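worker-3 :: picked Dipeptide epimerase
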Amino acid sequence: MRITGMRCRRFDMRLKRPIKVASGEISSGGTVLVRLDTDAGLYGLGEGSGVPFVTGEDCEDVLSGVERLAEAAMGRSPFEIQAVHAAMDAIYSGHTAAKAAIDTALFDLMAKAAGLPLYRFLGGICPVVETDRTIALAAPEDMAAEAAGLAARGFRHIKIKTGEDPEADIAAVRLIREAVGPGVRLKLDANQGWTAPTARRVMRALASCGIDALEQPLPARDLHGMSALRRALDAPLMADESCFSPEDAANIVRLDAAELINIKLMKSGGLHPARQINAVAAAAGLRCMLGCMTESRVGIAAAASLAAAEPNIIWADLDSTMFFEESAEIRGGCTVSGPRILLGEEPGLGAEADF
Ligand code: MG
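worker-3 :: tokens ->
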């Protein structure tokens, strides 16, 4: 089986409301899907969902990226995943969301060729993944009301955006803990918005709130700062913007800069490098979470398949489809019900899209 053609298209999904985080705001819901055709009649679907202030790509960049990167896959078998990644890296550094689209389409094809749903192709047994839900920055009272609603709908894990105003952060987290009671697990994500003294002060103030993890309090490149901060905090640190690649994961391990890594297909450039990041982390005793950008059900199905397959991925933060009115032009892949993501049993991703 050889790749013979590529199509790509922007799909617009209506955002229910803007998503504000400390490092920027997501105010529109476009994403890019890629379809790789083969001479065997099978095709693979993949998604590239860039967030400019994280991956450096918007939809236009992803579209132009995949046009160029698809050259790396043309004429090859989808099983030549290593060679395709090497060829893509020789065309562009970065462009990770565009690379993720090509990579995921190749995995969709491999799993289809094997006659297995992707989560099984990746080694998984159970098709269900439980996700948390993220609460964006807003007035503390509004964040607490949203948390109470999520807890009532069965969400047992909530991730709270922080990092803009430390006093508001403290107020919001306290109100949220009060609103959801002791049974809901809470994580914080400061999106690089704090200094080390601020992080220490806020986490001291929240000592009685039972925080499972603090994600990316310091700027992405400050691994030495993360390493020093880790020793001063009770809550485990998670690296997100600090970790795009297996090499980043190795540096985090070397510098002892985090206990957890938030893997996102859009940062890593797809499933193949994501598995390598997880392997580096697992070998060093770090656990991982599988997160997302603004993917549709195609990218979420891919990410959830990896989360379902890897025991070292202990948490999922795969809630992007809940923030959009989904496009009727994108179907299948997974069924989301409350915090539960149910993967399909069709071969591959089981997703379809109108091209
Ligand atoms: Mg994050």
